[in-house]
Write a structure and sequence with these properties.
six-stranded mixed sheet; 282 residues; 46% helix; 10 helices
């Protein structure tokens, strides 16, 4: 047997966390002070939790820039920079590193990236389902909440592009069918007396169909951590935070068995599916 060296991982701290955090300067002037090369970009925006109004003291700064030329970006000991391409061919350059007391995730996209991402949903023949990958879905969401810092006309046109596409309907149909499949799992699990798994499956179905209602109402966020915030801020979805908490998140109530709790969650999801069909999907 060959002797192997002991596993001895090491950790190098590139950037210490300050004891007192100063809020980052997210103005155009603030960004240009660290990234003067961004002055050559056609359009710049904030996005992510900062743009949505959900940021906390430990949130990073998410920013997008759009250009068809190479930008001069700084190199320092806190940063990483890489170029990536997803399966659809959408390409971006990411600069991630320190920004004041925070971190910044700066992505540089070509100017035709919005049209490229939405291309399948701008044709006369509307796709039944949303087959875009995670990168495209996140990109479209972040564009939908963009806070322009430069190139307002670019982002106004992007908003019109999203609104004129069938993306929201296709994504809603995908979430609907996923939720229905998970409800079928619930029925099978309960038939097999696997109540614990059935409860998880029912909660997943409820989350997916709630997501579908929110997407159809214009809330395109792809992260489940913001679900209740999205419900609170999107009354057009027909959902309420109290209703979701009571029907989906609450465990068995007084006199309610675990099985009955599963059925309560599954019935809420099934009713919401029906309401979604009647309201918008036909």
């Amino acid at each position: 047997m060959t002797d192997r060296p002991a596993f001895a991982p090491s950790l190098k701290v590139l950037c210490d966390q300050p004891g007192e955090l100063t809020a980052p300067d997210v103005s155009l002037a603030g960004l240009l002070a660290q990234f003067p090369g961004l002055a050559e970009a056609k359009a710049i925006c904030l996005t992510g939790s900062t743009a949505a109004g959900w940021a906390n003291p430990f949130s990073d700064v998410d920013a997008y820039a759009f250009t068809d030329t190479d930008l001069d970006l700084p190199v320092d000991d806190t940063m990483e920079m890489w170029r990536s391409t997803d399966e659809s061919g959408l390409t971006c350059l990411t600069w991630m590193g320190r920004y004041g007391d925070s971190r910044i995730d700066l992505k540089i996209w070509p100017t035709d990236a919005p049209a490229q991402a939405l291309a399948p949903y701008l044709t006369a023949e509307e796709p039944e389902f949303c087959e875009s990958g995670t990168v495209v879905k996140d990109f479209v969401y972040r564009l939908s909440i963009a806070k322009p810092l430069k190139g307002e006309e670019f982002f106004e046109e992007t908003s019109r592009l999203i609104a004129s596409s069938s993306y929201q309907r296709a994504l809603t149909r995908t979430l609907k069918i996923d939720a229905e499949n998970r409800l079928t799992d619930v029925a099978g699990m309960l038939r097999n007396d696997d109540v614990k798994s059935a409860r998880i499956a029912a909660m997943t179905a409820a989350a997916w169909i709630a997501d579908g209602a929110l997407v159809l109402a214009g809330s395109l966020c792809r992260s489940d951590k913001w679900l209740l915030r999205r419900i609170e801020e999107t009354p057009a979805s027909g959902l309420t935070v109290d209703g979701y908490r009571t029907q989906v998140l609450q465990g068995p109530g007084p006199g309610e068995s675990e099985r009955d709790c599963v059925l309560r969650i599954a019935n809420w999801a099934r009713t919401t599916v029906t309401n979604l069909e009647e309201a918008a999907l036909g």
